[in-house]
Amino acid sequence: MQALVKTRPGPGLELAEVPVPRPGPGEVLVRVAVAAVCGSDVARYRWSRNYEAGAAKDMTRDLPRILGHEFSGTVETGADGVPDGARVAIRNILGCGRCRSCVVGYASTCTKRRTIGVHTDGGYAEYAVVPAANCTVLDDGFDLHLAAALQPFAIATHAVAKAGLAPGETFAVWGLGPVGLAVVLAATLTGASAVAGFDLNPGRVAEARALGIPAFDPRETAPADVLPPRSVDALFDAAGAGAVVLEQARALVHRGPVVLIGNLPGRVDADLMPLIMAEQRILGVRSYSAPAWDRAVRTVASTPFHRTLGDEVPLGPVALERFELAASGAGRPFAVVPHPV
């Protein structure tokens, strides 16, 4: 079968011919339909100096590796209650299953956590082997392209739950990529509304506006101009902006949350005294919880999240071209499609 493989430390991926994997006990063989491409996949492709000094240390020992940690497909060989022919979305977090975090549904904070598509082979291939326990069986009508993008929506659902947004409350978000847009849509399901979204990418600003989100480039419209003091109930950072968002805490109500989602580029230098005086909270979100994943499966189809999914690209040379374009900071969002659906 064909697969996109990270063979060595350094930039790039290779399109390789590899054997179809064989499932072991408790595992299923999935015929991959769609594998989404997120920023972390592009970072693994680009392999910058900053990446090599940080996140790459966790991955280098596991090379070569078929990448792709967000994917969906159809089960070819089932196991443990996941039948042949089932349409599935893959939960990519592999926890130990025994620690306190895993027992309460937070495998994302398991100290032995691993990730499908990073520490085990993933979905940029015609077939993938995954634990049956990591398969979510979907209804026949569930769009497999949407299923491949469940992770960012689940992360957003988790972030919104941690913020505790209630009907009628308001929020602002930095970063209007898949996770940032998903935050807006997931928060809207709670009855909250977005006051503003910010991104440096004009295409993302335009896409957010097309979804009805008041979106701005902060280089053109200062956040303080649209966020008066104590005017919003939560702030979300889905851009790794860190200090930039913390500096806007004046816009946040007393005791309100600043939710930092995902990776920061490094140390954050910020004056925290205003947050302390206002008794505001800083909340971290690494990934998603089991309840957030289940809620995302139930709710994502009721939102316009499908409009954010981007192009479908066949597994092959064109996919490598799109990775190269994405690594340069250009191009539209895309997903790799080994088997069109």
Structural summary, described in words:
There is one protein chain. The chain has about 350 residues and is α/β, with parallel strands linked by helices. It folds into 2 domains: about 1-150 and about 310-335, Medium-chain alcohol dehydrogenases, catalytic domain (Quinone Oxidoreductase, Chain A, domain 1, Alpha-Beta Complex), CATH 3.90.180.10; about 155-285, 3-Layer(aba) Sandwich (Rossmann fold). It is about 25% helix and about 25% strand. The chain contains 12 helices and 18 strands. The strands form 4 sheets. Strands 3, 5, 6, 9, 10, 17 and 18 form a 7-stranded mixed β-sheet that branches. The longest helix is centred in the middle third of the chain and has 14 residues, at about 150-165. It is globular, with a radius of gyration of 20 Å. The two termini are about 20 Å apart. The relative contact order is 0.16.
Write the layout of secondary structure elements.
Layout: E1 2-6, E2 14-17, E3 27-36, H1 39-46, H2 49-53, E4 65-66, E5 71-77, E6 87-90, E7 93-94, H3 100-103, E8 114-115, E9 127-131, E10 135-137, H4 144-148, H5 150-163, E11 170-174, H6 178-189, E12 193-198, H7 202-210, E13 215-216, H8 223-226, E14 234-237, H9 243-246, E15 257-261, H10 273-277, E16 281-285, H11 290-299, E17 311-314, H12 317-327, E18 334-337
Parallel strand pairs: 11-12, 11-14, 12-13, 14-15, 15-16, 17-18
Antiparallel strand pairs: 1-2, 1-4, 3-5, 3-9, 3-18, 5-6, 6-10, 7-8
Helix pairs in contact: 1-12, 5-6, 5-11
